[in-house]
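ok so I'm stuck.
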Amino acid sequence: MIPTKVKKPLVLSVLFFLPVLFLLFLYPSKHNYNPLDIVRNDIAELYDFQTESGASVNLENQLTVLGFFGENPMDDATRALNLKELVYDKFRGFKRFQVIVLLPESAKTQAKALKKELNNFEPLSYWTFAYGSENALKKAYASLKTATFLNADLASDHIFIIDKERHQRGRLDDRTKTQKENNSPVFGLNCYNVLEVAELKNKMSEDMRILFTEYRQKRKGNFNSTTRRADDILNNENN
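replied:
not stuck anymore, here's the structure
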């Protein structure tokens, strides 16, 4: 029989180290190491957009979540609320992270009201509303790889991940394990539906974490750029 004086520290040690060992066991298998795919290179810089104060915005050297909320952003505030609660709140404060929402000039009044509503939770230090012409909005959207289109009011339910080099990130193969086993046709994921809570919580959150891990490894000098699907990336970058 183990003495009582020994038993308590032993149990506490097991309770502490068991989760740590479990995580160490899982880490190599989960992150060994599949970077987030590049689905399109050289996304257009945002030279034609400015903030309400006239400041410029840029994608270069930033990890950006890019959205388009149209002429009437308050009419469907669900886009903004989902983006804030399910994406922005998880990653705010990460190095070089930002959310940029592009809007037409006519949306300034509603955007100000929307920003005030969002600021009721906390200041949006890493979130920027930027304004441009209708042509600038259409040009920016056309530079992205997506099968979706801007609505008549220049809004979209889809948001995009852009890396520091202005590459659009996503998944070249978004099939489930079962679909792969059944040899279903390959389909990708180039953008994320901001109205689909499950897609933001599961797929987009995971993809963002993978991208942050990639840049963290790059800073440490141990990122291997020849990992998963390099040939697929080259074959798809101009599609």
